[in-house]
Amino acid sequence: MDAEDFQAFALSRGTHLYRTACLLTGGDSHLAEDLVQETLGRMFAKWGRRGRIENPAGYAQTVLVNAFIANRRRKSSTELPTARLREDPDRHRDQELRLTLLDALGRLEARDRAVLVLRYWEDRTVEDTARMLGLSASAVKSRSSRALSRLREQLGADFLTFAES
Amino acid sequence: MMSSRSEEDRFAAALHQAAGVLPAPSPQELYQGSLRRGHAIRRRRRVTAGLGVGLAACAAAVLAVTLPGSGPGRPVASSTVTASSAPATASASAPATGSATPTGTAQVLSAFEEMLPADTTVQLGGPDGGPAIMGPSKDHATGLWMLQVVMTVQGSGAKGDSSVEFSLYDGAWAHSCAEAGSRIGIQGGCTSRSLDGGELFRITRSDAFSPSEFYLWLSPGGFTTELSITSQAEADFPLTASQIDDVLTDPLWATLADRLPDLA
Question: A48 vs chain B: nearest CA distance in angstroms?
């Protein structure tokens, strides 16, 4: 195993994975950090073995999303993300909107959330997203459409304002 | 219903805007956490998938130490070895510097193994092909030369084994509990005390499934030794506090610290 390769990968991709995890968890920074460490830990356990990981960045995304969905399965479906980020009393407008978006994301069903994050944050195609989540392409499209619609219902005017600000 | 391309684009922009300003932990914290997690995963795999192989290796090793000509000490090995003939507390307190200073990583591995209590079962490497020793190499984050030894150790009477990781750095990467905790990614639960003219930080993580203890000794000479132990239960930790002190402050490390680049 080339430990330096893994270290370089983890250091260069860790922050991006963390941001992806934050979107998936609706802003739960503790869970996001835990998911990233689990993802990188699984990669470390596999790194350098026969059948080397050909596309570490893509592999990490897949592991992260699967770990997130598995984690949500273990938890109550009614559980809401922790509110650590939302407790800052000095948040200004952008931050409020950002947190509102994260909060709204956090209220979506886990797999719908994963669809949105993969499609619009990771810029994955419908087919890629379907493959990563084990869904059909049509299921990805319908979930995406449904989730966006729900976000719009929740955020109202803020949704568009935020995107334009 | 939001379905137009422009609205999707705006949502993508909003997502990037939101994610881009999220405060993130340092990559080093994530990296260190992933190492701990990765070693724990390997350890679990060994326990579940390698039980049969391990038992066979144990039997072979026990047979080996009972054969004529076998010494009481623990031989250098790349598989599971059990040494049950020596007193339980003998080797942890004995410096491993009875022989010449190691000139290769295999000798470092052997020397470290000799520092562990004699009644422990030690496994080097593992079925995943992971090494028992990594480096010496230059740590990207700290710029220090480091050497890491990884072993799976089961103490006498313990129900499960423990992941034991030892690292030697040729300098210091933390000078306080807060700094050490921040770099390791474990907040709180840190204590410090003087040890052999240097300072020892002890950080604990009380995880119900994999409690761990992390020790960092800043030597008076400027180099750092680090030991982390992760078990399935605190009762399974294979080293006592004094044995941990002895491992961290073994005179061997002072002789090696300045020579890490030469061993690479």
Answer: 8
